[in-house]
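Structural prep section.
Before we set up the soaks we want a predicted structure of the protein with pyridoxal-5'-phosphate in place, mainly to decide which crystallisation condition to try first. Input record follows.
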Amino acid sequence: MIINQVKYFLFRENAKDKKGRETLHRIGKCFTIPIKTSDRKDTNMLSPRAQKIKPSPTLAIDSRAKAMKAAGVDVVNFGVGEPDFDTPDNIKEAACRAIRDGFTKYTPVGGIDPLKDAIIEKFQADNNITYKRDEVVVSCGAKHSLYNIAQALYGPGDEVLIPAPYWVSYPDQVLLNDAQPVFVQTHEKDSFMVKPEALEASITGRTKALILNSPSNPTGMLYDRKTLEKIAELAVKHDFYVISDEIYEKLVYDGAVHVSIASLGGGIRSRTIVVNGLSKSHAMTGWRLGFAAGPADVIKAMTNIQSQSTSNPTSITQKAAVEALRGPQEFIAVMRAEFDKRRTFVVNELNTIPGLHCMTPNGAFYAFPNTAKIYGSRFGDRAIASSTDLALYLLEEAKVALVPGDAFGNDNYLRISYATSLEDIGKGIDRIRQALQNLVPVK
Ligand SMILES: Cc1ncc(COP(=O)(O)O)c(C=O)c1O
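Run finished without errors. Recording the tokens verbatim:
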């Protein structure tokens, strides 16, 4: 492919100009030489923006494990971030009906009114927040909603506070929009909830937003009301937005109650954009349906951005989503009860493995064991000095896929997704136990 062309002239040396000075003298006509893609050696044609980001490490591990499985290797995959349940039949049937009825054309960019209304009802019933249609936008997954928010709010010079450990896409979405992620480390002794004092210490005149995720991926932590109230006070006092990712809202255990920060009084509602979706609550990861609710001006900007990128979420998925939100909800309790069983099992088992300890998570479907005591050991000439070393060792030697904590901003942990059968969990834990027994400490 021809990507550019260069103009050439022929010159004669030692010619003189009109004043007698030595100069080059152009002879003959200009000619052009095309440059082909194959001639380009060092020129990087990718935008600086594209060069700043990395592919999602969780998806990378998952696809590596799936490739090993496809090649016949018996891998236990603890890397997945999606329920292992099938989408309920009533939701599938609503989608089939949409196709049969010919509901297969463009829809309004931000979603059809019946879906917006179902989302408004959901916020009212679950979170006690009242929204209007112009305060809601439907997107192709919660990740897409978060990306639209990033495009609508962040720009050069802006700082975005991200408590760590964080979900992998937050920092890259900030970077993609030329803003700066500012990490605020949280600690296991505080159940991985960000300390309001630590948050306040990181606030500057450039702070544009804070990204909160409750329940959290990867830690499974659920924010309590008191901490959220303090965070809300800070957002109002220092006038920044809170992006509240509540995608795991329905997966909370031990009677814990999920609180949306937007439902707290005192001006926080108008500074919060709540993100949610159906991927985790209704086992609909492949359908791509997420939504956001917040101040009308931000929602309008997000809708405009979406109108220039994906347009509407799939018409068929939108019909399925109305059924998901308004139809029977018993499925969620069944799925939650199963996750709860696995959560207890996985945490108990992990805590019997020498060198590991694991906090009991209150939400989501992840366990986040501390692996720091393992570092500084080796298997043959293989040194285990980080979460990535450990995750690669477990994948290659024990055939267990999990995600290194480093991907989430804390190298002292691994993330285990228990969205897989109890049988697989048992098998995977036994393999981890054996593999860790095979390590020898470095003297
Ligand atoms: C915390 C968090 N937010 C958002 C998403 C994205 O969800 P969706 O599949 O709806 O894009 C995920 C998916 O893993 C997640 O873990």
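Observations: The radius of gyration is 26 Å.
Flagged for discussion at group meeting.
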